[in-house]
Amino acid sequence: MIQRLDATEKAKELINQLKETYGELMFYQAGGCCEGTQPQCFEKGGFYPRMNDVLIGTIEDTDFWVDRDLFEYWKFSHFTLDVLDGFGAGGFSLETPLGKTFKVHYRLFTEEELQNLAPVKLME
Question: What pLDDT does 87 receive?
Fold first, then answer.
């Protein structure tokens, strides 16, 4: 099965660093403006996905949820989680005090990949 989500080594390292401080984590990416344009990292349970929001995968045992409307727009795209130096939009994400911000790089799936995509899970 073709996974919908991957992460750079830098992103994985930062996730593990944050887990040492905060415990279990989760990501949520909304489809709105400002902080919704970037993935936000929270303590697990610190944000509640809405009904029909989409779990597209996990990175380092950390769930990555996407707003249901954003998923409709990006459902034919692969997400690669990365991290950059700097202050992200909004400042609510756990990496902000470290002077880091998570970012997603997107690419369209190939026709072959689309035939074998991993299933997603909807929030009920």
Answer: 81
- Residue 86's region, left for phi above 0, alpha for psi from -120 to 50, else beta, is left
Residue 15 identity: I
Say how far apart CA 101 and CA 84 lie, in whole Å. Answer: 5
Q: Which domains does the chain have, with CATH numbers?
A: 5-115 (2.60.300.12)
Which whole number is the average pLDDT over 102-117? Answer: 96
**Least confidently predicted of 40-54, 56-70, 76-90:** 76-90
Phi and psi dihedrals of 43, rounded to 5? -65, 145
pTM of the model: 0.93
Give the closest residue to 121 by CA, choosing from 62, 60, 65: 65
3-class secondary structure per residue, the chain = CECCEEECHHHHHHHHHHHHHHCCEEEEECCCCHHHHCCEEEECCCCCCCCCCEEEEEECCEEEEECHHHHHHHCCEEEEEEEEECCCCCCCCCCHHHCEEEEEEEEECCHHHHCCECCCEECC
